[in-house]
From TrEMBL:
Domain of life: Eukaryota
The encoding gene: LOC117571249
Enzyme Commission number(s) from the entry: 2.6.1.1
Record protein name field: Aspartate aminotransferase
Record GO terms (molecular function): L-aspartate:2-oxoglutarate aminotransferase activity; pyridoxal phosphate binding
Gene Ontology BP terms: aspartate biosynthetic process
Amino acid sequence: KSAFADVKLVIPAEIFHLTKLYQEDKHEKKVNLGVGAYRTEDNKPLVLPIVKKCEFEVVNDLTLNHEYLPMSGNPDFIKVATELLLGSDCKALQEKRVAAVQTVSGTSACRLAADFLAKRLKRRAVFFPDPTWENHGEIFKHAGFKQFKNYAYWHKKRRQIDMSKLLVDLASATEGSVVLLHGSAHNPTGMDLTKKQWKQVAEVIKCNNLFPIIDTAYQGFATGDPDRDAWAIRYFANQGIELMAAQSFSKNMGLYNERVGSLVTIIKDPKLVPALISEQMLYVRPNYSNPPAFGSRVVAKVLGDKKNKEEWLKTLREMTDRVKTMRKELLQKLQKLNTPGRWDHIVKQRGMFSFTGLNEQQVARLIKEKHIYLTRTGRINICGLNTKNIDYVAESICQIVK
Ligand code: PMP
């Protein structure tokens, strides 16, 4: 008998399961609004032209080899990635109070933050927005956190942020708790705080001495401008708040499977930076030992050259413009069809996702009857819409909610 005779078939992640169901579906009108990846008007993945160009340059660079990177990653990448996140005029950067390490994209940046904080800030609670990316809880659980709390974020009925409850929840958090925030394009709701609201959150964080982790998986994907999307983290840094940020190049450079990201820690005392990085390496070494090089070299080339960067920014704007157009069109079509309920939140939300407000039963029917795939929570990836399928999607939603 096998030592694993009792293994059970599980679904580790709804999102990968949905993609599989979509791929197996033979229906001609099937639509995938599940997976969080950009799609072109032709429903194809996009390799950004400037990314492709830089990939060729990396491949053709005969001075490069496949030696291990340092455990903390590729220094050329770290420099440009950190500047993209914080802005090159960032005071914390100038004062050398930033400890940045390359990670296996945003997921492993979150995990490294969680590993480090679980050990360093023993017994503390971690607060997640309600709702949040479904992997956050698992990551922190595996890192050893024991206390999990939610702070209010989404008001289901009003389909907007429940700001007053959010502030109450953070104000009543035990002093020193860890609080996870989404830098921009909140997943799954697509609803971000305004500058005024971010300032209120920063105030509570300071008063209550909370430790923020800002998960920044969509820098540039909310507004099309990475500087605007990094406003909150830069504001927090300028307020002298110690924080961590998880950075990812999956979405904004379309480098999903290259796994490029970083964990950035801003601390008050620059003298602590080397020790802090060295302690973080205690979690990297027994985990993946050192990060992969290729994607980091590509990002370093894209961001390290003014012209390349401009071209990247142009494509980023084109991608986000397409998403914004699809939002507007979906709203117009739903309204034209007299779809019951309010739908204007679709155009107030930003980034890839829209939290539609569709309930679990409606989602199940959309999948079964209409071959439109989306998560149980009613989240849709707007990038999965295009001029060819948007009428079908709007009509299907209308029929299901009627
Ligand atoms: N955080 C959030 C909020 C996300 O939505 C994602 C991607 N779905 C990630 C982190 C991590 O993505 P990756 O590991 O590809 O960088």
